[in-house]
Amino acid sequence: MSLSLSFTGHHDPQPLPLTLHSALFTLHSLSSVLALLVCAAIVLVLVLVLVARYYGDAEAKKYTSNTRNQQIQADMTYRALELLNLPPGQPAFLLDIGCGSGLSGEILDEEGYLWAGVDVAPSMLEVALEREVEGDLFLQDIGQGFGFRPGSFDGAISISVIQWLLNAETSHPTSSPPHRLQRFFTTLHSSLRSPSRAVLQFYPSSDEQVQMIAGVARKAGFGGGVVVDYPNSRRARKVFLCLFVGGGGGGGSGSGQGGGKGEEELPKGLEGEEEESARVRFERRRERERAKAKGGKRKAVKDRDWILKKKEEDEDEDEDERGRGRGRW
Questions:
Q1: Rounded Cα gap, residues 74 and 279, in angstroms
Q2: 161-191 burial code (b ≥16 CB/10 A, e <16)
Q3: How many CA atoms lie within 13 A of 29 on its CB side?
Q4: How many C-beta atoms lie closer than 10 Å to residue 45's C-beta?
Q5: Domain of life of the organism in this record (predicted)?
Q6: Per-residue pLDDT tens digits for 127-173
């Protein structure tokens, strides 16, 4: 139905000017965009309310101080770094998805990596700030996607997080699990350089959930697949989504299974009994923390500018003084 304006007198009805028609169309488009932004804001508020129920100030501190939680987080972070298969002896900028209070981030610090963390729980991020973690922290609902520049990160890890994307907070289509997963994986893929990897440990409740998550990741452009450690153990079984961008990069050693042409092979899951190596590393780390607390000194950390320069130039270090007190890569 066309719109027209009528005038008194002998003039014929004139069609609505094109500029006015365009303005009305623009107003309609803006209202649609505004409606989507309002829906996104509502979803974010609901997510924050839900998270607050689980991780208020007291709960966040209790979770972080629990040595069992620390050990589990350390075990899975070390394993995620192993699957990430970064080139040895080179700096890297990593994204910690669902960084919480920085338990994984402290291990990234000790391993010599620069990192940024995102989490939806303000209380957990507040604990991370109190603990003076070295990473940059962002309050972010990952189901709404990331806003980082393309190719910002050399890799990404996530521990016990992405299963929460399967929860729909409202009945609106944009808050459905498939939509949240699509935004998450599409923007994550864009945020990673090529080649690189993302290793996401999660707790699926069924094989159908694993297939849904892996399927959306493939549609977003990722290669790779699912790695299951200790598949026959109810206690030790862990599921990792090991995703490749541009073939997967990697510079360490490791054999795998599958893998397409031009793509690194998917790492094999661990078999047999749960290994003690990660637990040993965790206990040693606890001893270092105790010694640091007694000495009243925070461990030396690498200078950010030096790391960025190292990454850009990719050259060996020449000056002896830069090698002192910087830990290990």
A1: 8
A2: bbbbbbebbeeeeebebebbbbbbbbbbbbb
A3: 6
A4: 12
A5: Eukaryota
A6: 999 999 999 999 999 999 999 999 999 999 999 999 999 987 667 77
Phi and psi for 199 in degrees, rounded to 5?
A: -120, 115
**pLDDT tens for residues 30-86?**
666 565 556 555 555 554 444 444 556 778 778 778 888 899 999 999 999 999 999
Is the entire prediction scored with pTM above 0.70? no
Q: Which pLDDT belongs to residue 248?
A: 76
The SS3 assignment for 5 reads: strand
Strand partners, 138: 118
* Backbone angle region of 295, left / alpha / beta, with phi > 0 → left and psi within -120 to 50 → alpha: alpha
Query: β-strands 153-159, 136-139: how paired?
Result: unpaired
The residue count of the chain comes to 329
